[in-house]
Structure formats: structure tokens, C-alpha cells
Write a structure and sequence with these properties.
12 helices, 2 domains, alpha+beta, five-stranded antiparallel beta sheet, Aminoglycoside 3'-phosphotransferase, Chain: A, domain 2
Length: 354
């Protein structure tokens, strides 16, 4: 049930001697016993576990060969976590940032390790929750997102961070451009979705808040002894200050519920359609009560969240189609893009409203 590390993947090795030498002033004599392993999964920043017999830390660095600095900005991620550590108890505690590329060839940062339960496509075997407990756990998952959106920006020192004004429009335009750049001859047509998002774009909610931008179950850690409770939120690489309703929409883009079409449920990436799991309408009400925000024009935010995932899937497939990767897992992202496009069209047609 706990995320297990594995041997470091070929081509993603770290210079352990250089790391030990660099971290000795921070960790002291402990560095002599350091060993390194790697967390599996993910298509972006790389995450490693540094361990001694009794202590653990996590190291984050960009992918090897990455040339797009803004997409893997370690200093930005470190700054967000540093700002949140005293006002939001769920972020990992940042310990050290390094921009000296002579150590491992890139920026990296060190943070504390949060040991706990991670839920992926299915609930882990051995975690036998009743429907009542499933509901409590998943509503608490959304409460923690609402609490992030309630962080006082000035108190966190983030009142001048990001560009919250015009955030909704920039997101729609940006993801539309990314779609156009990732189109392949065998993919679906998203022109109608892009047009609808532009024509139905709501006014900004009027609230700027810290947003995570990839808040989903496998980026959250639950307490092993009390699995209803969230104890950590991970992967802050896309976080910024913007409209919290867009963040909610991105999370609900992952949220497949029990009465959704079977073809959509088959494509789910987390067990949000299990018996006891709250539906989107209940989540929205809970979110409104928690944050005081009014979630109007929900179909827009839901459609945007789905379209964004459609684009991400198509971008991954694009790499496979053009031979940039031979990883057969990436071939399946074409089907996922088709499913997400079809769900967007149902929203546009008014067949799905919550």
C-alpha cells in the first residue's frame, strides 16, 4: 500500500558521490551511509529517495535532456513549498535547493519524505474500506484542495506570485495551441471543443488563490493508520496563483462517477466510481461550503478539465507516433484522447451537466 521505490532506471542515474559531498554541510555525517532509489511512474520531473538506515529524504530534478526550463522549474516548485510550509500543513517541507549544475547536471531540491498510503487506479489490496469510509476519505480529499484555495496569499508571501488576472483565458488559449501542435493524422477533431470553450468562457471567479494544477489521488498521501486522513500533497511542479475554479475543474476531469458512460468509466485512472464515492454534484456543494466560492457554469470547468487531459494524452501519443519514444504504453494515449474528446462533446450537447 506504500509507494515502493525501485532500482534507478537506465539513463536516469545520479552521481551519488557528488550528492554526498554537496549535502554533507546540510545532513552532516549521515551522508556517508546514503543510498539512492527511484520512485516509479510519472512522465515529468524525476523523484528519488535518499536513505540511511533510519532516515529518508526526497530529491527532485528535471528529466534528463530537458531543454524547456519553464516546464521543469525546480526553483519555482521550491519557492511554492517554502511559502506554504507555515500556512498549509500538507506540502512536503523543503530542505535545500541547489542550482549548481556541477553536482548532478541540473537544478534539484531536497525535501522531507512523507510515508503513507497512495491510491492509484484501484484501491490497494488489503485496504478494506466500507462505502461510508470511502465517502469520508474522498470528501476529505476535496476538503484539502479547498483548504489550499483558502490560503491567504499575503500571509504566504505569494501575493505577487504568478499572473492571476486573465488566467482563465490564458489557459484556454494555451491548451488550444498545445492541441494544434500535437495533432496527428489518426486523432480526433477538437475544433468544436475549442470553439465552445472560447464562446462559453465565464468571468473570472474574482478570487486568486494558490492552485495545484494536478491535484489527483495519486498525488496525495493518506495516513496508513487512519486512511481517511490526508497527510501530504505531492508534485507541485505546475502550481501557481490563479482561478481556483479552474483547479477544481482540472481535478474533476479525472473524476469518473458510477453513472457515467461505460466507455468513460473504463478509461478512469482512479477508483472514483467505487461504491460510496461522492458524485461531482456533491463534491461541488462540499467545495462551495468549504471555500465560500460559488461554482457557476460548472460544465465549462468540467469540459476544460477533460480537454486539458485530452491534450496531455495527445502530446504523449505524438511522441510515440513520430518515433521519439518506443515505449508501447504511450500508444494507448490515443484511445484516451478519443474518450476524453467524446466526453467533452456530451457536455457541449447538454447531455452531462454535473
Amino acid at each position: 500500500m506504500i509507494d515502493q521505490t525501485e532500482a534507478i532506471r537506465e539513463g536516469e542515474e545520479l552521481d551519488l558521490d557528488a550528492i554526498k559531498q554537496h549535502l554533507e554541510p546540510i545532513l552532516g555525517s549521515k551522508v556517508g551511509a546514503l543510498v539512492v532509489s527511484q520512485f516509479p511512474g510519472g512522465h515529468s520531473n524525476l523523484t528519488y529517495l535518499l536513505s540511511t538506515d533510519n532516515e529518508h529524504w526526497v530529491l527532485r530534478r528535471p528529466p534528463f535532456g530537458s531543454k524547456v526550463k519553464s516546464a521543469h522549474d525546480m526553483s519555482r516548485e521550491y519557492r511554492i513549498l517554502s511559502a506554504l510550509k507555515d500556512v498549509y500543513s500538507y506540502g512536503p517541507v523543503p530542505i535545500h535547493f541547489c542550482d549548481d549544475h556541477s553536482v548532478i547536471g541540473s537544478d534539484f531540491y531536497l525535501m522531507n519524505y512523507i510515508r503513507g498510503l497512495v491510491i492509484r487506479r484501484e484501491y490497494p489490496s488489503g485496504l478494506n474500506l466500507t462505502p461510508h469510509h470511502v465517502r469520508a476519505q474522498l470528501l476529505n480529499f476535496f476538503d484539502v484542495l479547498g483548504d489550499l484555495h483558502s490560503v491567504n496569499l499575503k500571509q504566504a508571501g505569494l501575493d505577487n506570485f504568478g499572473k492571476p488576472k486573465g488566467y482563465v483565458r490564458r489557459q484556454v488559449e494555451g491548451w488550444s495551441r498545445r492541441w494544434v501542435a500535437a495533432v496527428t493524422p489518426d486523432t480526433v477533431n477538437c475544433d468544436n471543443i475549442i470553439r465552445w470553450l472560447n464562446e462559453n468562457m465565464p468571468e473570472e471567479s474574482g478570487k486568486a488563490s494558490v492552485i495545484h494544477n494536478d491535484y489527483k489521488l495519486d498525488n496525495v498521501i493518506f495516513d496508513i493508520d487512519d486512511p481517511m486522513q490526508v497527510i501530504g500533497v505531492l508534485d507541485w511542479e505546475m502550481s501557481t496563483v490563479g482561478d481556483p475554479l479552474m483547479d477544481l475543474g482540472c481535478t474533476l476531469g479525472y473524476w469518473v462517477q458510477i453513472d457515467d458512460p461505460d466507455w468513460f468509466r473504463e478509461a478512469r485512472t482512479m477508483p472514483s466510481d467505487i461504491d460510496g464515492a461522492p458524485k461531482r454534484a456533491e463534491i461541488i456543494k462540499r467545495f462551495q461550503d468549504r471555500t465560500g466560492l460559488s461554482v457557476e457554469n460548472f460544465p465549462f470547468y468540467f469540459c476544460f478539465g477533460l480537454f486539458r487531459l485530452c491534450v496531455i494524452g495527445q502530446q504523449i501519443y505524438y511522441r510515440f507516433y513520430h518515433g521519439y519514444t518506443k515505449d508501447q504504453r504511450f500508444k494507448g494515449f490515443l484511445k484516451k484522447a478519443h474518450v476524453l474528446q467524446a466526453m467533452c462533446e456530451l457536455i457541449i450537447a447538454g447531455e452531462i451537466t454535473d
